[in-house]
């Protein structure tokens, strides 16, 4: 079976710094793939170049659902179903929670009246636990609610693949547990997920498979429980 996302030998340098050096991997349909790695190992850059926001890879090939992304711009990649959230909050602070969701929902021709769009938005608010905050400005809600809002706005696009960059950063322990449950729920709803986290127990708990990046290259790949015991991985983290 062709993988849902197929990444072949992608590279990205900033001047003399090789941020991503020849990374290849696949994401299978229905899978949650975790990505770990020390600070500066290239995790966020990987999401940047996959989505071309803000820049494409220098070289390499990426295909989504069998279609090459090479000739597509960032907007077309979103329309094709590859969506990401950023490590820092990137929602619209001066819009309400509901408005953030409404502006993220695609306007498919013939797909509906304003009231059906409102209904879908209400369902999303409910799913993400944001109903009570619907009319508050995004800039005024707490970190956890903003993280959930960012995931909600990405999910509102009906993605095939969601790329989550440290969705649990800055959250308390109970909030992290809820975030894990939310990620699992989105996955059960049919979304395949790549999850970047530096919280290793979270990655082990939620990922079907784990990739560890180090200096922009794949250091190890496999089952989460085995990967975290891998001596090379342990050394990369202690050496950091
Ligand atoms: P991670 O997310 O794993 O912490 P990043 O992907 O953010 O790491 O960064 C990987 C490396 O690339 C770092 O050395 C970082 O300083 C560098 N880098 C990332 N983005 C840029 C950029 N836009 N310009 C220059 N260097 C960058
Ligand atoms: Mg990062």
Q: Work out the helix count.
A: 9
Q: Enter the CATH topology name of the largest domain.
A: Rossmann fold
For the record, the CATH class of the largest domain is Alpha Beta
Give me the strand/helix succession: EEEHEEHEHHHEHEHEEHH
CATH arch. level architecture of the largest domain: 3-Layer(aba) Sandwich
Taken as a percent bin, the fraction of beta residues is 25-35%
**What gap, in angstroms, lies between the N and C termini?**
38 Å
Low-pLDDT residue intervals, each spanning 5 or more residues: none
Q: In total, how many domains does the architecture comprise? A: 2
Mean pLDDT: 94
**How can the largest sheet be summarized?**
6 strands, mixed
Structural class: alpha/beta
Radius of gyration equals 18 Å
- Principal-axis shape equals globular
Helix content: 25-40%
Q: Please give the order of strands in the largest beta sheet.
A: 6-7-8-3-9-10
Would you count the extended β strands for me? 10
CATH superfamily of the largest domain: P-loop containing nucleotide triphosphate hydrolases
Small-molecule binders: adenosine-5'-diphosphate, magnesium ion
Keywords: ATP-binding, Nucleotide-binding, Transport
GO cellular component, one term: plasma membrane
GO molecular function: ATP binding; ATP hydrolysis activity; L-isoleucine transmembrane transporter activity; L-phenylalanine transmembrane transporter activity; L-valine transmembrane transporter activity
InterPro entries: AAA+_ATPase (IPR003593), ABC_AA/LPS_Transport (IPR051120), ABC_transporter-like_ATP-bd (IPR003439), BCA_ABC_TP_C (IPR032823), P-loop_NTPase (IPR027417)
